[in-house]
Design brief:
The complex is a heterotrimer of chains A (110), B (127) and C (253).
Chain A (H helix, E strand, L loop, with lengths): L5 H29 L7 H9 L1 H28 L6 H23 L2
Chain B lengths: L12 H4 L1 H32 L1 H11 L2 H28 L3 E2 L2 E2 L2 H24 L1
Antiparallel strand pairs in B: 1-2
Helix pairs in contact in B: 2-3, 2-4, 4-5
Chain C lengths: L9 E8 L9 E8 L6 H12 L18 E4 L2 E4 L13 E4 L6 E3 L2 E2 L2 H9 L21 H5 L12 H5 L1 H5 L6 H11 L7 H8 L13 H5 L6 H21 L6
Parallel strand pairs in C: 1-5
Antiparallel strand pairs in C: 1-2, 3-4, 3-5, 6-7
Helix pairs in contact in C: 6-9
Classes of the chains: A mainly alpha (110), B mainly alpha (127), C alpha+beta (253).
Bound molecules: iron/sulfur cluster and FE2/S2 (inorganic) cluster (FES).
């Protein structure tokens, strides 16, 4: 029996789960509601997103979220009945996550 | 002669009882987290492009479609937070000698952390 | 005697019957049995067998939630029928079916071979590299060491958790909740040295990693074993072990 490599994915999934659980509601509050309500100044956003800490945080949160989501969706699709496509689903999900992380890097470090 | 009836598998098991429905919703929360992260990245990209690009995107964000999306995404994000915190003591059964640290304590600590981070984000963005 | 809160005199049972010699598949049959405030579903089944249809087959033994043999689906939820009161299902009908996710031998009796095989596969006994000499006395355990696994040792093998687990329903190889909790029970026993032997199986895809933490196993468990928690803890341990195996490739994995 081959030892599973699931720990790698599961630990990234868990890290993403923690970060999103703690942070995403607040972020949605800001960018989904306060920004359209024009309560947030452009200059402030620009300063945050240009600051090294801001860039690192955006990249970290976004890439962990993508990995978290890829892993979770990969498994729930199998649970919901797509067992026959288990392999391709896993590959597609993690590739999408890597793509998402790369995109996050280009945006965050622009 | 014994002729066992084979076990039944249901393709729709996740619709059959409430706990399973909640499970699937919990897992699908990840889809909304990822979609939202996409929107956030677009917003960040517009900010880097300058104030007029940002302005255009704020107009878009004011549309009912975006507001509805963010409302749904917020609900799923909260579902994720609540279920995630609930699960923490399951994987980390902290023990103090014979006594198990009350799961409620661990869960509560997570809520406190979430609240603190939310305040921090609001302070950084608004003040 | 406590007063009956209901003036019901009978209650209807819908029972899945499967008689291999005559039924192609399980069929629901309806029976009206007397309603008693203090009766559990198993009492109603016993009445039915004694007075209405002696051919009904089902398992039971202790009538007190400890032997683990009377598990069935009651209105679609896995229950010990000796602990499920009729009064909680008023006004009825009450649907009683064999435990989900197992083949049906006959009526409410399921085939348990798969569980029994997996049960043994995790070596649920204390494994020692060697016994310590008699004069050193017994293997002593502190209350804290006992507390580390006691919860997982409360399992009565009723298999309700298997009936509640959709992953077990769909994955033939998945070891399942009770068996994995049992593995934790021995892995966490300070007297045991068999963790390494069990690891290969437990830490494989067929072990803990098929589990997606639906969590219903713990919800239906009558003994608060929390098999879902056991599996989560095993995932954490397996992950720590996985990373550690890179840091110390020649250490014990
Ligand atoms: S873990 Fe609980 S539900 Fe599962 S077999 Fe043991 S006692 Fe029954
Ligand atoms: S008859 Fe023994 S547990 Fe129900």
């Amino acid at each position: 029996m081959r030892r599973s490599n699931e720990p790698l994915f599961w630990s990234l999934f868990s890290a993403g789960g923690v970060v999103t659980a703690l942070l995403v509601p607040a972020l949605i509050l800001v960018t989904g509601f306060l920004v359209p309500a024009e309560r947030v100044e452009f200059g402030r956003l620009e300063a945050i997103l240009s600051h090294p800490v801001g860039r690192l945080a955006l990249f970290g949160v976004a890439s962990l979220t993508f990995i978290h989501a890829a892993h979770r969706l990969r498994h729930v699709l199998v649970d919901m009945g797509l067992r026959r496509f288990r392999g391709p689903i896993a590959v597609a999900a993690y590739l999408a996550a890597i793509g998402g992380a790369a995109w996050a890097a280009t945006v965050a470090f622009a | 002669m014994a002729r066992p009836y084979p076990r039944e598998r249901s393709n729709a098991w996740f619709l059959e009882r409430w706990p399973y429905r909640v499970f699937v919703l919990r897992e699908l929360s990840a889809l909304f987290l990822a979609l939202y992260m996409g929107v956030l990245l677009v917003l960040a990209a517009r900010v880097h492009e300058g104030s007029s690009a940002f302005r255009d995107y704020v107009d878009a964000l004011q549309s009912p479609l975006y507001l509805a999306f963010h409302a749904v995404a917020l609900l799923f994000a909260l579902l994720h937070s609540v279920t995630w915190f609930q699960a923490v003591p399951k994987g980390l059964p902290l023990r103090r000698g014979e006594q198990r640290v009350a799961p409620a304590l661990l869960i509560g600590a997570n809520y406190v952390a979430m609240l603190a981070l939310t305040v921090l984000v609001l302070v950084v963005v608004l003040s | 005697m406590t007063q009956a809160p209901s003036d019901a005199t009978t209650i209807r049972l819908e029972i899945a019957r499967y008689r291999p010699e005559q039924d192609e598949r399980p069929v629901l049959e309806r029976y009206d049995v007397p309603y008693r405030h203090e009766w559990v579903v198993l009492d109603a089944l016993n009445y039915l067998k004694d007075h209405i249809d002696g051919t009904l087959s089902y398992r039971w033994s202790c009538r007190m939630g400890i032997c683990g043999s009377c598990g069935m689906m009651v209105n679609g939820v896995p229950k010990l029928t000796c602990s499920a009161f009729l009064r909680d299902y008023l006004p009825g009908p009450i649907r009683v079916e064999p435990m989900a996710n197992f083949p049906v031998e006959r009526d409410l009796v399921t085939v348990l071979d798969d569980f029994m095989e997996k049960f043994q596969a995790v070596k649920p006994w204390i494994i020692r590299d060697g016994e310590q000499p008699l004069e050193e006395g017994e293997y002593r355990q502190t209350p804290a060491q006992l507390a580390d696994f006691k919860q997982f040792s409360m399992c009565i093998n009723c298999m309700l958790c298997y009936a509640a687990c959709p992953v077990y329903q769909h994955e033939d190889e998945f070891l399942g909740p009770a068996v994995l909790a049992l593995a934790q029970r021995y892995n966490h026993d300070s007297r045991d040295q068999g963790k390494g032997e069990r690891q290969e199986l437990i830490w494989s895809d067929e072990g803990i990693w098929d589990c997606t933490f639906v969590g219903e196993c713990s919800a239906v468990c009558p003994k608060h074993v929390d098999p879902a928690g056991a599996i989560q803890q095993a995932k954490v341990e397996s992950t720590v072990g996985w990373y550690r195996s890179f840091l110390a490739p020649f250490g014990r994995g």
